[in-house]
Amino acid sequence: MFLVESLKTSLEGVSTAFVHFALIVGVAIYTVFGALSMQYLESPERIRSHMKREIPDRVERIFLGEELSEMDPNVHKCLEQTINAILARDNCAENLDLSKIDIEQIDNCYLKADIPPRNIEMVKKEKNKIEEEKPAEIENQEPPEKWSIGNSVIFAFTVITTIGYGHIAPETFEGRLFCIFYGLIGVPFTLLTIADLGMFLTKILRSVLTLSKKSADFLLSKFSKNTSARSTKSCEKDKKSIEKNEEKIEEEEEAEPEEKEESEPRKTEESVALGITFACYLLAGAKILSVYEPEMNFFNALYFNFVTLTTIGLGDFVPKSFDYLFITLVYIGIGLALTTMAIEIAADLLKKIHYAGRKMENVASAVVWFGGKKLVFGKILFFL
Length: 384
Known about the structure:
ion channel; mainly alpha; transmembrane; potassium ion leak channel activity; 2 strands; two-stranded antiparallel sheet
């Protein structure tokens, strides 16, 4: 019976660890898949074909007024008649307001111009020339190599984590369509993984706090001068009983569903410890990034870390050192989990404030005993 229980417990531990590991590996594989897909869909050859499809079907030729007058002499006569009519109407006034002149009459002279067929043929020749030269120009043109493997990985990772630097974006129809479905599947999957990693880090943080508290209590009890041998023995007994109770509580917490664990109120020391951990994580990451990122000093790296881990993602700073890209992505992933923990603690704090305000709503109508009489609390405040 003991062997069965121990085997069951060990399998539960292995299965939990396997789920954590499988989620992280799944996100990594999905990121690589997205990067390779975008690199193929946005390859230079496909961009060239996309540029060819954007060649205009029609070419417009804008003729100047002088050219229209040469093609059709009637344009010049029409302009003379129109201008004379305008001057006659306004009696050739010196203070004539040109802004109030009806320009539409002058435009009609150009619109009525009769363009000879030979000029229309000239426009068609220009269109055919563009259609012949443009594809050759596109073939010789080398599109900028934006979709390197490093940039593609960063793009894929920032899409599914909703950071979205925006330093590169798909240009082809296929790439944009793939990006929609890639994010539609990847965003929930990645957020689930980050939340799971955050819960795992929360357990580690609680274990560290419990261990440090036990160590502090042990040191205080050991070096205390005002404790007797009898009290020491009783403390040891109490400590053993406390440890047994804590072990039972931990086993019960592991057996309970995750929803109950999430609803437990956060302790003050957890909030303080998480705040210190997050601040140290930002500072340590800034120091590390400033070593191998060419465009980032310590402050720029700190700014980049904050903008990235809070998923603001302005995109003014982007990782450029692809040799250390794996370290950068792991750092961002753990940092996003810490941010999730901080948001959960802040939500619990706001929930407490919300319900505390509700409890204090009917204080004035509360009934209290005062001087041997039953009075309403509002009346007591009135007399005071």
